[in-house]
Amino acid sequence: MEQLKTIGRELAMGSQGGAWAGQSKEFLDLVKSIGEARSKAEEDRIILREIESLRRRIAEPDVPRRRMKDYIIRLVYAEMLGHDASFGYIHAVKMTHDDSLPLKRTGYLAVTLFLNDDHDLIILIINTIQKDLRSDNYLVVCAALTAACKLINEETIPAVLPQVVDLLAHPKETVRKKAVMTLHRFYQRSPASVSHLISNFRKRLCDSDPGVMGATLCPLFDLITEDVNSYKDLVASFASILKQVAERKLPKTYDYHQMPAPFIQIKLLKILALLGSGDKQASGQVYNVLSDLFRKCETSSNIGNAVLYECICCVSSIYPNVKLMDAAIEATSKFLKSDSHNLKYMGIDALGRLIKINPDIAEEHQLAVIDCLEDPDDTLKRKTFELLYKMTKSSNVEVIVERMIDYLISIDDNHYKADIASRCVELAEQFAPSNQWFIQTMNKVFEHAGDLVNSRVAHNLMRLIAEGFGEDDEGADSQLRSSAVDSYLRILGEPKLPSLFLQVICWVLGEYGTADGKYTAAYIIGKLCDVTEAHLCNDTVKAYAISAIMKICAFEIAAGRKVEMLPECQSFLDELSASHSTDLQQRAYELQALLCLDSQAAGNVMPLDASCEDVEIDKDLSFLINFVQQSIEKGANPYLPESERLGMSGVSNFSSPYQQEASSHSLRFEAYELPKPSSIPVIPQPFISTSTTDLVLVPDTTYYRENNQASKLIVGPEASSADAGIKLRLDGVQKKWGKPTYSSSSSITTSVEKTTNGVVAHQDGIRSHSRDTTYDSRRQQPEVSVEKQRLAASLFGASASKTEKKATMAQKAPKGNSTNAEKSSVVRSVSPGTSKDKTAPPPDLLDFGEPVPTSAPTIDPFKELEGLIEPASALGPLYNTVKTGGDKAQDLMALHMDTPPSVSRTSLSLASEGTYSTDKSSYTEKPMIAVKKGPNLQDALHKDATARQVGVTPTGNNPNLFRDLLG
Amino acid sequence: MIRAVIVMNTQGKPRLLKFYDFQPPEKQKELIRSVFAVLSGRPDNVSNFVEADAIFGPGTRLVYKHLATLYFIFVFDNSENELAMLDLIQVFVETMDRCFKNVCELDIVFNFNKMHAIVDEIIFGGQVLETSSEQVMKAVEEISRLEKSSNSISFVPKAVSGRFGR
């Protein structure tokens, strides 16, 4: 628009007389002075002064109405500039009550701009809106409809709904149009409250006025998006309307730039695309009109191209038709060849849609696409990357990902960076031509966008390095690991690395840094210490680093070499021992303890390259039997299960709400809330003076201990006394203190449960709070499990053996000493993405002679355990049909024995924590828990082979990748 | 649906804001700032489309037009067509031009209640209502005619018209 002139402010103020009649001088002065403000601060000062003066003047009694209008407009202006003008809202509301149209309109304008639909003042306007909707003056009605659209929320819809529905039959078409749209808006707000009126939209589709018909298309589009099937009957009507519009049957006033009603055409095409999607019969009714449109569309005007683009979208969405496809491809190539960036953009988008139907189309336009990639226009570039992402195959993945990473480095928009990074990761995981390439790519992504990537990706990478890559070629694996170590040592020289990447580096260095003997332990430990010094790291990285150091020390000790403590390592250790984070402290102390061990013990604590091994759980806690016996001999009360304890309620009045709570949720771990005022009088006075005050005032830690004791598995003497205290307190108040007085969050349950073993009681209670890594991994679980469900659905029928494998993962989780948290987080949160990748291709199914190395898909172990019951029983009869031999079947059986179906979340974690504390109490228990790599791999392979035989067909979601990974 | 109509000048000062989902003033300020940051970084002769999911949430795009000292920006989601939105901006600007005869930034500043009236005639509750600038003009003119007849008091103080009549 050339007509929009740039005019100097001063000049304009003087010359443009009369053009903005209607505003007061003061307002003009305000705008002028803001326009002349030299800085943001000055502008703010002017506005604030203005607001102050308005606040004063608006509150004066008897402000003339037209003056008030001016004030309100100034307030709107101030709020547009981002200043709070809430003191004037009420005056705007008052203004809507005014009889004069200009004032009323100003009032409505102000309230629609000021108020949210749940603002308290809305209630004062509803009556006015109701009245205005019934007004004789259609402009008043329109103003009221506009306001209703903006201000009416779910609760207030019924108040105005009857009037709005009446307006659907208003003689003025503008009002009908707006009424339809208001109803649409209500539908968006709250579908339920207008659901009985939906038929009105269909009725209005036949309105005599094309404008009203056009307006109905908007709500219908929304309705059809939600439920395609109930509108299939309208396909013919829509197609015929579209035909009529295209044939210029509408009045000339609907033409826009020589196009007949283009916006209506576009809406209709969008609707038809939805209705025709995957429906051959419906699509058939659209073919004719579409080919007409392709012929008739003006490609010289912008709006003509808009319709053309919409036609392409429609063609790509409905049941394919060869002729229409050709027309669409032709139109697309015209877009791509155009000089206009807008059209190129549309072309790229259209191409992205068309290649879904026929991937070969892209090749023809390669050059155009590459041009767009080089274009200075960022939007176009992004759109092109989106297209590339859609057309990635294993043959072009290297090029595309390389391009993406280059682009990733060049931009600094974090949102988009994260987006691109996750796409790189996804493509690399799907189509990686080689593992070497995969690791390098991941390294690059981490280096440049590390903090923006999902931590799941990091775990995938660690897992991949740890597990090797499918084939049982240990040599290749170790070669890969040492190359990873090399590259990480090199990368550590970089000045700034994201924390997530540092975690990966620490873990890999700890696990494999010394594995190939190229680097000495001292060198790697030195590097690890450097990491924590050179980079500003958070506690998680430090935890990873100290664990890595511990692993290396353990490997050294196990190999019979002496570990020399480097001075920097010692100072790091000292720092951590004094850390505020109890987790770090714990790790530091564990390292110190480890250094005192002999070679065999150290080897057992930290077996070499055992990160992927299963950990067996002694769920009966049999190692505690001696301890229990001793305690009982010393006079402790024997353990009674909850149920039995409840049975004693008649005697000792144990059946208080607390105990019942305890039996259903196993433990309380949050401080009791202050007793509600109403319940205080019920508590007998004497008890308040003793235990209740105690209850209220005890600090958290003390409370933890007390509570733990109360529900200890092995009830000690002091515990019973605590019980007695509770019991006393509860007399007479049990009815008043119901469940609401405390709540439980099961995520912490495990950590408190730890203390029940009484070994590391007091420390653990606190430590649980700071185990970041564990919580990290927990937090990701929901996300993983959604994907998992999908995977599970696609693997229908395979659930039995899948769960079985997952069960082993669950056992694996609570592995070692202090690396427990770290490793389990690695193991647990690996995405199904890789696990999919890792499943061997179907041909291997029958190849039992040769064990196929497949990794167990690791998904939320707890979830899987819950589902174990059914698959296990379903699997039963199948065993008989297994031909390979008893040993394998037994293997499978054994697995189920290992993890009985009834293992629930809490009890599993209890068991795992049990092993944990055994580690602490005596290291010699370890061999039972950690298993050496060799035999275990064999086991895993057997399990896998058996599982397959029992009827698992790993539906490879990515056959390409399998080919690449497995040759 | 259309999420927002924004008019701002090339210094990032908002001239007209209309959000079809309520945004509190602070949020509006922030949105304006981030939109301006994106637009001011774009060279001339590139496309008029920007993906705005970082600013307005997933799936949103914006179309802008840079005219004289102003950016006209429409924010919308994937139920609208980019090219069509570009034409809607055209309709908007054409209407303003008919309304003010050679429209410039100051017209918009001083008449922003009229601007709102125009936008309300073109877009209603986030949906396209009218795309013919003639029709919009008619509606707006009728409003001002009725407003005048219903209230004949002149709102322009003599001093102001005198001052600008020079």
What features would you describe in this structure?
The complex is a heterodimer of chains A (967) and B (166). In chain A, 67% of the residues lie in helices and 0% in strands. Chain A is built from 54 helices and two strands. A two-stranded antiparallel ribbon of chain A has the order 1-2. In chain A, a hairpin with a 2-residue loop joins strand 1 (255-256) and strand 2. Chain A is extended, with a radius of gyration of 36 Å. With 166 residues, chain B is an alpha+beta fold. Chain B has helices at residues 25-40, 53-56, 82-100, 105-110, 112-122, 133-150, 158-164, and strands at residues 2-9, 14-19, 49-51, 61-67, 70-76, 123-124, 127-128. In chain B, helix 3 (82-100) crosses helix 5, helix 3 packs across helix 6 (133-150) and helix 5 (112-122) packs across helix 6. Chain B is globular and about 45 Å long. At the A-B interface, helix 1, helix 2, helix 4, helix 6 and helix 8 of A face strand 2, helix 1, strand 3, helix 3 and helix 4 of B.
Quick take:
The complex is a heterodimer of chains A (967) and B (166). With 967 residues, chain A is mainly alpha-helical.
User: Helical stretch count of chain A?
Assistant: 54
**End-to-end span of chain A in angstroms?**
61 Å
General form of chain A: extended
Largest interface: A-B, 97 and 87 residues
Which value, in Å, is the CA radius of gyration of chain B? 17 Å
Structural class of chain A: mainly alpha
| Beta-strand residue percentage of chain B | 15-25%
Task: Break the fold down into its secondary structure elements and pairings.
The complex is a heterodimer of chains A (967) and B (166).
Chain A: H1 9-15, H2 25-36, H3 40-58, H4 65-80, H5 89-96, H6 101-114, H7 122-133, H8 138-151, H9 157-167, H10 173-189, H11 191-194, H12 199-204, H13 210-226, H14 235-246, E1 255-256, E2 259-260, H15 262-276, H16 280-296, H17 302-317, H18 322-337, H19 341-357, H20 361-364, H21 366-374, H22 378-391, H23 397-410, H24 414-431, H25 435-449, H26 455-467, H27 474-491, H28 499-512, H29 521-534, H30 539-558, H31 567-577, H32 582-595, H33 599-605, H34 625-633, H35 642-647, H36 649-652, H37 657-665, H38 685-697, H39 700-710, H40 717-730, H41 746-755, H42 761-770, H43 772-794, H44 799-812, H45 820-828, H46 832-838, H47 861-866, H48 869-875, H49 878-881, H50 886-898, H51 905-921, H52 926-929, H53 933-949, H54 959-966
Antiparallel strand pairs in A: 1-2
Chain B: E1 2-9, E2 14-19, H1 25-40, E3 49-51, H2 53-56, E4 61-67, E5 70-76, H3 82-100, H4 105-110, H5 112-122, E6 123-124, E7 127-128, H6 133-150, H7 158-164
Antiparallel strand pairs in B: 1-2, 1-5, 3-4, 4-5, 6-7
